[in-house]
Structures are given as structure tokens and as C-alpha cells.
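Model: Ready when you are.
Researcher: Fold this.
Model:
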Amino acid sequence: MNQALAVRQDFGGTSSTLAAQETASAYVAAQAKAVVEARYVMALRRPRQWDQVRQDLLKECKRPSFANNKSAYYRKPIGDGVEGLGIRFVEVALRCMTNVLVETSMIFEDEGKEIHRVSVTDLESNLTYPLDVRVTKTVERSKPSDDGTYISVRKNSYNRNVYTVPATDDDLLNKRAAQISKAIRTLGLRIIPGDLQDEAEAIIKAIRLDEAARDPDTERKRIADAFGEIGVKAADLTEYLGHTLDTCSPAELVNLRGIYGAIRDGESSWKSVMENKAEQQAGKSGGAGNAGGGAGAGNGSKGGSLPTCSDEAFEKKKAGWRKAIEGGKSVNDLIAMIQTKELLTDDQKMEIASWAAEGGAQQ
């Protein structure tokens, strides 16, 4: 073995001289340690200035091209609608904050799935949020593979066969990128201060509404063309709205823009949008019927509104809900089912979403 004299800069700033063996493993370990130390040293030497972070972030949000980006702000058709800041916002916010490290590494792989560990670290506070993401190597198609083979088959709501087939390299790349992006968004929002999120959300909504109000005809055409690209016809939009597109209000145009973003990013589908619309209309009709039933309606909710699930009730029921997730039920379907009876808070929805990730890590 060759012996070499190395001078090392420690994290504490002191230097030491060591006799080190030049092996591949020692080199890789030293390199990894140097990279980690360099990141934390730079974070200490150049701490973020929150006023500057706020200015930079809100400046980005005020750009119409950013505010109208489908991935900056989305709307999911769950219950009365679930809105939230998207991955594009999180990416910009973390860049404005500086001293934030996002890491992704594959920790497990077999023939059927991959498990990736995604972590977001605030280098200044040394706070890390990790999340394991499970990516299955299959996709669902309306027909078997070219050679006629498939893994499994099921009937969809239209009583048509849906086949589970092995994912191609492109399919797997898209699934992996989508799942990792969702994890980064979820973890990044835990790092970004809530008051900045609220301000940014208000600006994005205002710009979208202003754009729709200033030139509703152009915005209506853009939205119709965007939905057409994902297979949703103008007649489908008319059915959803209950009136023709040319009578849309600016608020309805903003709502459609958010739904388009959720569908385009794989967060939802047009089928689930229409199913949720039907459930909401049925709930309102039932609520109105109860209200007209006299004093007996006093125990129900007013105007068809649903009660919010309390923390105590959530703790009692979450074991059964968790079994549903472990049994293969999707997070969106479970939340939609629950919210036909009671509303969930954002924290409760986030906990339900974490069960799917935990289940993938254990398999």
C-alpha cells in the first residue's frame, strides 16, 4: 500500500495531518464527507435573509407566466375541491430560500418495484424530512402487450377490461419522475414558512383571476384547447359547468385551469372530476331534503355541509382506513370516500398520503 500525507480541513475549522491509505473506499468516503461539510460551511457563512427570500419569491409569483403554470397551483376534484401549491412553486421557493438540499437515492429494487428515498434538508437548521417513494414497474392499458401477454386484468367502471402490463423504459421514467416530484413537493412545503405560502397563493389566485377577467374570451379558448389536448371535449366541459363555455365567469375559468393542471400532472382524471361533481350534487340534494323535513333536520348539517373530522375521531378510524390503503385502495379514492360523510383537514390528508409511502417501503 502507498502511504500519503494528507492535510484535511475539518468542519470545526482546524487542520490535521494524517497518514492515509490510498484506497478506493477511503477516497469515496473522504469525498462524500467533504461535500457534506462544504454545504454546511457555506450555509453558515452565507445565511439566508428572510426579507430577501420573501421579495424574490413574491416577485416570481407575480409573473403571469409563472402564476398560470399548471404545476404552480392545482385544484383536485375531491369533495368541494382540494387546492394547493404545486411542484413548480416548491422548486422556485427552495431556490429563493437557498441553503436547502434535495436528495434522491434508490434504496431498493427488484423485478416488480423500485423504492426511492427522497429527503429535503434545511442546512441552516439541520432539519431533514425524508420520504420513501414506491414505484411499481407496471402500467395499466386498454389492451395487452404486443405479444398478447399481461400480468392481470380487471373491469373498469364502464365494464371494459383494463390490463396490467410491464412498464416500458419510457413509462417507468415518467412514473418515477412524477412520484419523486410529488414527494419533493410534499416535503418542500414543510420547509417553506406558512406565511410565505399564504402570500404566494393569494398572489397566484389574484393574477389568474385578473387574467381571466381582462380577456375572458382568450382565456376560455386557451382552456378549451388545453383540455382538448388531454382528451376532454368542449361538450364535456359544458356538462361539468352546467352551461356553455361562453358564459363562464372568471372564477369558473380559474377553477377549470386548476383542474386541468391536476389532470395533466396525473393527480386526477376527468372521470373522477365528473364522479365528484355527481357526489356533490347528490349531497346537496340530500341536505336540502333534510332541511325541508322540519325540526328533525336539526341534528343534520346545515345546507348539506359536512362536519369536519375531529382529531379524536380520526385516531379511532385511521386503523381501518390504513388497512384500505394497504389493501390497494388509492389515497385519492379513500379521501373522496371519507369526504362524502365528513371533511378532512390538510394534516389528516397528509397523514393518509404518508401511509401509501410507508406501505411501499415495507414491501
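Researcher: Now this one.
Model:
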Amino acid sequence: MPDLPAHTSPAFPPLHSLRPEHPHHLEADDYVLAGATASSSDATSTPPKARRPSQHPPPAIISPAFTPPATPGVSTPSDPRPRPPRSVPVLPSGTDSPRPELLEQLPIVDCEVRARIPTTTGHEMWLHVYRNNVDTKEHLAIVFGNQIRSRSLDREREGETELERMTRGAYVGRLYPGRTHSRVEAIKRAEGAMPKAQPQPQSQSPGSSASSDAGDAAAETSRTELPLVRIHSECYTGETVWSARCDCGEQLDEAARLMSSPHMSPSGGVIIYLRQEGRGIGLGEKLKAYNLQDLGNDTYEANIMLRHPADARSYGLATSMLVDLGLGGEEGIRLLTNNPDKVRAVEGPGREVVVRERVAMVPLAWKTGGEKGIKSEEVEKYLSTKIEKFKHMLTQQ
């Protein structure tokens, strides 16, 4: 079998295993697709490890071996006493950390439209649709709070009418029947509510509605906390068809819960929703991987057996979208993740976005002793693989 390209993350020692499924660590040449057979003499006389010398996995193709100093444990609090989630400071990457293989230049993104979405929980959020120069997919930004606006959306377009601006969501405040201007200041001037030379945008408290006048007036509202950000990859099975093979749907719900609460995220938050199903291999290949898992392989091994990277995702689009939403620069963000690779990858090749703190996502079943959350043998194996092979920073304590 020919050597495979580097598809794995840096070789760290295992952190913790919920249910060890294999007595040894399989490597690329040990994976055999269905239909492949070995001679009876090989099967009986030569164990797998004796056929070839042990080798360390190849280096990461996306992100470096960068691990923030600690895991905060249970850091996503629940009611009845809401409070901002505890987080762990992320130190700048040192000289000892290998450089990731990131794009030399970030993709170009453009927010085409946004709309106010009232949710079933009683909160509101803004759904943004982005286009880019890398693929033809519609990637999304789900924005909570008043202080986060898209620069490309608000940019004036030649020949555009006020109705066209409002139709694509480039307005401040709220829409209502009979509104004729996208800018609140223009409405107030037309009504004689304020002098033309001294516009004074209304002040709104964070989390009270899905938009504010701050974006149009470029108001620099002091933030009591850094905005909370979640980079979430599409998972049709976990989010739509109730799959208990992963915790993706639960993570999406938990991120929205935290960001919609002014107590837990007073500066608002953003969920960057990237259309990279199945860690970047697509839904069809993901279902093939599920079948291989039912044959006894884990999610990591299944992707390799299908000749895909263990994790084919990238985060350059997420970085560009965060910059467009005004979350770039040294002020920084809090990143809601258990994935150490994602911390550095989201920052971009020139640290266009700075991750100041990492907030852990603890499975709901772990936090509640199994009373809530996903309960299945498959999700336990999935979490175990995340910890052992993808080096996610999870703890039950």
C-alpha cells in the first residue's frame, strides 16, 4: 500500500479515554477497506505491528500543536443562576510551536443579506449569508446582540435605493410598515427630531434587540466582556435528523443559549456556520464512514479508510467573516471550543483575529450526570475518539 499524505494532528500522548476500543494505535497501513483480504499465512503468523516498524503520525496539515494552558472543566453554566461562562486565557503562540499550514492570504468574503430571526426561545438573532472567492457555498454568520455588524453589508452600493438597502438588511434599528430610510438619523431628521449637524443615535442595552444604531454611528461602546464566538461546521445528521452519533446539535444549541443571554454574554456573540459537512468530506462520504463505524472502526479511522483526511476542515473563511463583522484586531474574542487546533487556525496567518480566551464545551450528559443530553453508546465512542485522536480538551471533572 502506498504511503498516504499527512492527514492527522500532531502526535500528543492520549489524554483520557472513556471507553478504549483498541489495544493499540492503528496506523494508515493497518486500515483495510472492505473487500481487501490477507493471506492465511500472514493472518496467522505475523501480527500487524511486526510487519512494519512503528512510526509517529505525520504533522498537522492545518493547525499547530498549540494547547492553551488548561481546561476550565464545567464552564457553561445553566440557570437558575446565570452567569458569564468561565474561560481560560490563551497565551500567544510561542516560538516552540510549529507554524500551521495556513493560507498566505485570507479569502475575500461579502455579506449579501441578513434578516432578523425571532427564535423559539423568545430571543432574536441576525442571520447573515456570506459569499466568497473560494467556493460557491453560502456560509452563515448567526449574530446575537447589538454591537456586531457586517462592514461589507453596510457598505453603500452604487445606484442603490433605500428600499434595496433595507431589503438586503443594510439598515439599523428595526423595520416596520411605512419605514422609508435605512438610517435612523435620516428618519429623525425627516421628522425634525434632531438637528442635522448633531446626530445622536439611540442607546440600547446589549441583548435587548437584534440590531442597534451603534453600527451606523460607529459608536465605540465599551464592552464589559469580549464577544463570544463559536466556529461550527455543518452537521445535517446531528442538527436535523436527531442523530445520537455526535454532539454537534447539542453544541449548536448550547452556543446559542450562551450568546443570547445578556448575563452570560453581555457583548453578544457570533456563531460562524461553515458548510463543511462531515469534517469536510460531504454528507455522502460521511454516511459511508458511519457504516465503517458500525463495522468496528472509530470516526478517525473511518475517514482514513475512505482515503480522506481525518479532519479536512479549514477555517480561513471563518477568520475573514469575523474580520468583516468587526471582531478582528488586538481586542480579541472568546472562542467556544474544545479543539486546540481551532484556536490557532481561527486566528489566521497574520493573527487577524486574536483569541484571548478559550471557553470549553462540556457535554450536557456529563454536567448533569446523565439526566440530560445525548445518551448513546455511539456518542460515548465519538467523544472518546475526540479526546484520544483529535486531542480535544475535555474532562468529566
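Researcher: Key takeaway?
Model: The first helix runs from residue 40 to 45.
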